[in-house]
## 1
Amino acid sequence: MIENKAINRNTYDQVMLPIYAPANFIPVRGQGSRLWDQQGKEYVDFAGGIAVLALGHCHPVLVNTLKQQSEKLWHISNIFTNEPALTLAQKLIDATFAQKVFFANSGAEANEAAFKLARRYAITRHHPTKTRIIAFHQAFHGRTFFTVSVGGQPKYAEGFGPNPADIVHVPFNDLDAVRAVIDDRTCAVVLEPIQGEGGVTPATMEFLHGVRELCDKHQALLIFDEVQSGVGRTGKLYAYQHYGVQPDILTTAKALGGGFPISAMLTTDAIAAAMETGAHGTTYGGNPLACTVGCVALDIINTPEVLMGVEKRHDMVIQALEKIDQKYGIFQEFRGKGLLIGAVLKAEYQGKAKEILQQAAEQGLILLSAGDSILRFTPSLIISEDEITEGMMRLDMAISRWLNK
Ligand SMILES: Cc1ncc(COP(=O)(O)O)c(C=O)c1O
């Protein structure tokens, strides 16, 4: 029995499918933007569970909500509806362009639903051959077979046999490239308003407006994957709200449950009407536990205090990074919006992001990368000024040690 053995990082290699390369320490406790590992070492957390923990670890209001709901109703299945799911759906509708909601459990599942809906809508409302999906190089949409195929990093989709068909990829932020491939057989254009995993690259204003116009011209749906950029991460509830460009379908996950797994696909009445009973589904999607926590997380995040605080924290992070760069000169660019920030390493440090992450962890700082050459910052939206300052001091130390190694 595994309970009788000491659990350590080696246990991972013995018992887990070898698809991840987790850090060599095991976190056991978190509070706000601090984490502790098995040895009691403390870390400042600038990763937030990869843009999930918008309110930090174990936010007391979320913990209480979860406890209370856990004594009432955990799961009921889609044979019934439930009050928390209906309440959360209404909140999302009130806060966005949407009129209909589908709940799932992960970003990939929300995207899978979005792509199926787009195909179904185009086939039933237009023509059976209107099935082409236009997507972008470096895009990331999840790990189901459809979502890795729409994603723009071929390595994730290779080696699993024949891929879903009729998907084309073009360079991000290149309107001419979209113009060259879009036609009346296009069913949807899919994009992240700010590419996250692919390098923290915001769409330009001109690009998003141009893509919207091209979609309208060719009666193609515009799908925004806001799994990473959504739920306050950029300082608005959804990133599309900075651009004034409305999608037809939007997917949201990660921060939606503040760390409890839940995702949603949002769309309009007219598009939702392409689906009928039995056309799609999930056992756990919209369960009362996740939706109750989602309601409370959304209520806290979708307030001027939290959203305006994101901008302030963005400025603090950028200023601290600029100071570090004045000392060490290792960055060529800072980009992103709100608390989705990428620090791009200079040409001579290409491929070195992982080494800096390891050194940061040694100094007690949890950071992310986006690709091999970009440090990525996705802390809690309510991280304190002291924690930002402390984390940046640790980053400074890590870079200094790393450069002198
Ligand atoms: C933009 C985007 N879409 C989809 C996903 C997949 O979400 P999940 O891992 O919850 O399936 C991610 C995860 O990083 C993401 O960043």
## 2
Amino acid sequence: MKTHPLLLPSIPFLALALLAARATAAEGPSAAQGPVILPPAVLALPVEQAVLTSPPNVPPPIARKHAARVVVNLEVREFTARLADGVEYTFWTYGGSVPGSFIRVREGDVVEFFFANHPSSKVPHNIDLHAVTGPGGGASATFTAPGHSSKFTFQALNAGLYVYHCATAPVPMHIANGMYGLILVEPKEGMPPVDREFYVMQGEFYTTGRYGEEGLQAFDLAKSIDERPPYVLFNGAVGSLVGDKAVTAKVGEKVRIYFGVGGPNLTSSFHVIGEIFDKVWPEGGTKFVQENVQTTMVPAGGATIVDFKVDVPGTYILVDHSLSRAFNKGALGMLKVEGPENRVIYSGKEIDAVYLGAQAEAGSEAARREAELQTRIAAEMKANPVIAGLTKEAQIEKGKQVYMGLCFACHQADGNGLPGVFPPLAKADYMLADRERAIRVVLKGMTGKVTVNGKTYDSAMPPQEAALTDQQAADVLTYVFNAWGNSGDAFNAGQVKSVRNEAR
Ligand SMILES: [Cu+2]
């Protein structure tokens, strides 16, 4: 890449950053003061190069029992990569990953921090390490234009798990583009040993497009100010800890997760479905103050350490238990555990039976009747042209089961709805007048005023498309069009499919 045209945009930016540094927490450049004169005791310390890892990996535990001068080399790179399938984003990274490289030092170490901003970068960057004692956490000392490097030294006085992040204006944008990571300052006595350690960080992405909208997505400042991210992610991409990228362990092992939240805005309710944290070091502090925790809250710009033993095999899902973020915005990962079953701790499914609660009678009656009709269809198949009629009847019975599971709660078993709240489906002029519209209501839901049999309703029906296959929707519509005195032709899956695929 050519260097000098890319440097141009940084010049007005530098001026802006300088101004911003006066008034805000954002840090601009500070003049270089020359190398620090280290006292002989520090100079005598052994020098070692820090091992940096990209997520979900964690550098090995520190074995030494004394302080060292630890050299950290961290390079900022801006590049475009996958955010989700078909979706690209220009990430700003520490060390080429989101979150950035995991740094591990020991309490009392003197850290010589070399910070480089790749020549292909478009803007300056810096780093504020929460593990640093000193103004800005290193931010002004490391403010670095593209194609430059900086160095500063700090002593890791306090043990703990700390977030680091960019503090260059506009700070939320730099963080939202992926500029955060974790630094662990191990206490002098070390961390209790475990079998596996993983590195996971949560952060939001504010794309101009909605979740899943394809193509290269730009950063949306308005959404970031409103804290309305289309994506809330673990480790920088949808699916970064899923399927063959899941983290793994074996039954009987102790697992530790170093979990941080880059934000820039949201707090995480960190939870692993099917596990209980045996120990939690809340807020990344050095005391595990709680045992047997289900969900631990991790603030933006904060971290936590959780330990748990895995007792039975299976897939454990990591989520932000603000669950729309997990199921609709991507905050979901997996831990796959292999090994022998222990059916006393967890039996797995023992019995599979139909249970429909209050609707049990109607529901299981319909199921019985469907099975009966299926047998009759098979028998009639060979010779009889009555098949068509029976197929519709079977669809009605299937549809009734769907109705009893999904629609019944609002539209009621007798199809009469509830006065003023839920419109009737029995002899409903509105529904019966337009079959295609009825499909649309079921799939896409309905809001606003609607008049059914002379009465006006102004309420909302949630979309059912996520809950229904095309065939199930066809079945339930066939049922409601033929129950309670209604009569109409059967619906088929093809008709539902074409409505489902309509552009909104
Ligand atoms: Cu930055």
## 3
Amino acid sequence: MSLTQHLSTPISSSSSAFVAHSNFISRTKNVSLPAKRFSICKCVAAASQEAQTAYKTTVSRNANMAKLQAGYLFPEISRRRAAHLLKYPDAQVISLGIGDTTEPIPEVITSAMEKRSRALSTLEGYSGYGAEQGEKALRAAIASTFYRNLGIEEDDIFVSDGAKCDLSRLQVVFGADVTIAVQDPSYPVYVDSGVIMGQTGLFQKNDQKFVGIEYMKCTPENGFFPDLSSVSRTDIIFFCSPNNPTGAAATREQLTQLVNFAKDNGSIIVYDSAYAMYASEGLPHSIFEIPGAKEVAIETSSFSKYAGFTGVRLGWTAVPKQLLFSDGFPVAKDFNRIVCTCFNGASNIAQAGGLACLSPEGLKAMHEVIDFYKGNTNIIVETFNSLGFNVYGGENAPYVWVHFPDRSSWDVFSEILEKTHVVTTPGSGFGPAGEGFIRVSAFGHRSNVLEACKRFKQLYK
Ligand SMILES: Cc1ncc(COP(=O)(O)O)c(C=O)c1O
């Protein structure tokens, strides 16, 4: 049963989500959480708030918000984790669920942020608002580090507070009237931001899809690359490689197919390269390595998973000058307008950290962090392989995608949580083609990853 199915279970009581939740749990082997404990877990529904206040404003709810079927996947997982902790207060819960980094930020990077932060306390070193597009030195360093010889220049780079925020700003640029395609499964933000913008129809329970979104199925059968001959034309194509959640990385040939597909259809690719540094040598690390991509693609990326900046917040988006709307207007100019209206620039301290990330020492330190997580990935992959599962991903991304054929992802998620106290992520939360899979994140301390794998072996031996 998927997240959306489970949360759309018909209910009549005011504590709707709790009822749905306990319905779901009761179907999972050996799990019976006492009802009273659920009252502490604040779940999705607004129904309980309705009961608390009689006063209503006269403002109608944004109908697009009402289309969203359930809470965002990761808050839902956190809620279930909290409920689990209430049930087992002494359990040593290990989280390999939400893709949050755990290793400390390398010193060479934090010391640069410390220096910048201290300078803010001096007359000479103080700075207030900076350029919305980011500091020149950082834009130049991003262009030369990630796009050397690819024709992407300093002024094509927009520094941001993270890739997720930029994805939403891009959606504001595109507006409500575009059609979108997403990989299925995919990082939920592409679908949810499209729904919020009004680019879709309603959610259909039968196929677990929103009307109006083109879901490009990515499964083991097609090597996690969509069969483009069966994909309908859309205005925008969201594509993430290396992929969250499947861990698959597209080859040069596959990305060439994608760029040609976009060009033939006059579409724009929004290429999410948040995990590019995890990709092995020989694989493309940017969409702009593909000839012609500058006329059809935008690339968004992030320091989050390279330098542990999930809390610091720093990313960027590259919008080439060559990318034009149908009337010939440059997409970059509209993106610039939105950035200047909706955003006031990334934190100057974070930008100092970003610049340090791109120094020779910073790059070496980031590679060490990435290699550490890749070591975790190997341990997880070997564990599930040794247990006879079909395991995907891992090699070029910090995510391992494990197949549990003919089982509901949420059932597997609950089984693992209940019996091993390990939090994973149910594949169906990333799209209907994720049903039957779970995603295991390699972000975790080594001792926790080893302990989690020991528990997986006990459960599935
Ligand atoms: C594919 C993908 N894109 C973007 C993001 C968000 O990155 P940021 O922390 O820069 O907002 C994530 C975070 O998990 C992700 O997995």
## 4
Amino acid sequence: MSFVVKMNGSQNNDIHGNFISGNGVHHVSRWSVKPSEMSKKTLNPIRAIVDGMKLTPNPEKPMIALSIGDPTVFGNLPTDDTVLQAMKEAIDSHKYNGYAPSVGYQKSREVVADFYSCPEAPLDGKDVILTSGCSQAIELAISVLCNPGDNILVPRPGFSLYKTLAVSMGIQVKHYNLLPEKSWEIDLQHLESLIDDKTACLIVNNPSNPCGSVFSREHLHKILSVASRNCIPILADEIYGDMVFPGCDFQPLAPLSSDVPILSCGGLAKRWLVPGWRMGWILIHDRNDIFGTAIREGLVKLSQRILGPCTVVQGALESILNDTPPQFYQGTISFLKSNSEICYSELSTVPGLNPVMPSGAMYIMVGIEMEHFPDFQNDVEFTERLVTEQSVFCLPATAFEYPNFFRIVVTVPEEMMIEACIRIREFCARHYRPRSQDSHELDQ
Ligand SMILES: *Cc1c(COP(=O)(O)O)cnc(C)c1O
């Protein structure tokens, strides 16, 4: 059966009904199944940009993708045997097939607490919430701190998930600038100028995706004073914590402050090289009792919507955190450093490119002097043509709200990194126009 619908011309397109002709009125099925407002507001800018690009590699050259932030794709960075063994034992124990509490097993929470606890910022089991990856940790943290109509402060350039989550929840996003000439430190004046009475949370991502930067202790102190002065809690995305190059020091944010309440988000994905295992956590730092029981209870309630991470991984956590040998972490870091150095030294001598040497994580950002590449409008066109001509794909930093840069993932095998840099050099040489020639042309 069908219902008569009064049609008003401009709404015709919205109705996906079946029209019945012949009797002079439009009939439409009573079915009306449409995607929710939330689903429509959930936008992944990386997909939006990449899907809009014409990515047709040069058939003469094998494709090299420097775009994927997954360290496992090339098979050159396996996780440690200890990690795999822990997982096998957890399965064989038959103890981890049931439901765990929504925030995770108490034992597993304690293991994470002990791993990250330090005298200046002590943690115990009740301060840890286990989540499905760091992504869910970020989602819970934003959800518990913010209401629709509030705003959050996020880095630019920055990881796109913060905005994707916030916008879908009706939370406004304000971007604070990072300064490439100061190793991607936060422009603190700009940051503070964005704060208003609707600001519910400051997101700090250290070490950074996409910059590979690592903040000094002094800089972290300055960030904390901005938060403290304005009474803004911090969401610290520390998923790359401890993934810093030798000679550089990762300082977690929480031990540096006793008054600013901090939700530190992390997980196994990057440091243990198992992003698919979906194990993350929130560390609740609240030594001044600002969050109190209310925020903790809020997090527990939110965790009950879906329940925490896979119980098998929870069972393996103790051994993963406590038995993985230091050589495993060191091996990953020295690989990432060596690849970053290769990439940096190759690209820093390419006219028109300005790579910024990272200090950690697994990325390097490269600035494009667009005025020297008149063949292209922007970083999206630049990286698109790099695929067409050289079969090298780098993510345009427009995906991180930062045009005229591109991001390279440094987890690829060394030979690939070298070959990619040679091809990028060739591409730039072909399209580079020196400025003097421009002005010469103008003179004529
Ligand atoms: C990869 C990444 C995450 C997500 O980690 P998962 O544990 O895979 O959800 C969060 N934040 C940043 C900055 C990342 O790069």
